[in-house]
Amino acid sequence: MEEESKSIAVLGIGLIGSYLATLLTKSRSNTYLIARSSIKPKLEQNNGLSVTLLSGETLTVIKEDFEIFSTVSELIDTGITPDYLIVCVKRTAAVEVYNSIKCFDGKNTSIVLMMNGVGALAEAKQILPNNEIIPGMVCRSR
């Protein structure tokens, strides 16, 4: 029996979010991107997302390979509740973002925090007490 693919939403399409979104989209289906309203048209205009690795290799995914939303509310309005929500925002925006994703509290969505800074995990657990909160990190192996 084939295991059902988990759905993953990436919130924040900056350096880390773009990297993770590209890798996830290339390796699976059911990847959703949540980007600022100023970023969404750029992704659509550029026909997708490209990242260049330190090795010089460029990874590209076309816009037909993922769905992009401007807000968490927009994602929710489509009826999508991701299995994982990867939060890739600056630490200074953390509380605002946690409050914007309260709609996932208790909905079996695991929250993966991809940010640095003291207190991020404790704040997330306080605002989203009914979700699994996973601290994450990106590292590159040679």
Report on the architecture of this protein.
With 142 residues, this protein is α/β, with parallel strands linked by helices. It has a single domain, classed as Rossmann fold. It contains five helices and eight strands; from the N terminus they run βαβαβββαβαβαβ. The protein has helices at residues 15-27, 40-45, 72-77, 94-100, 120-127; strands at residues 8-11, 31-34, 48-52, 58-62, 67-69, 84-87, 110-113, 133-135. The strands form two sheets. The protein has a six-stranded parallel beta sheet, with helices on both faces. A two-stranded antiparallel sheet has the order 3-4. Helix 5 (120-127) links the parallel strand 7 and strand 8. Helix 4 runs parallel beside helix 5 (120-127). The termini are far apart. The mean pLDDT is 88.
Brief characterization of the structure:
With 142 residues, this protein is α/β, with parallel strands linked by helices. The protein is 28% helix and 23% strand.
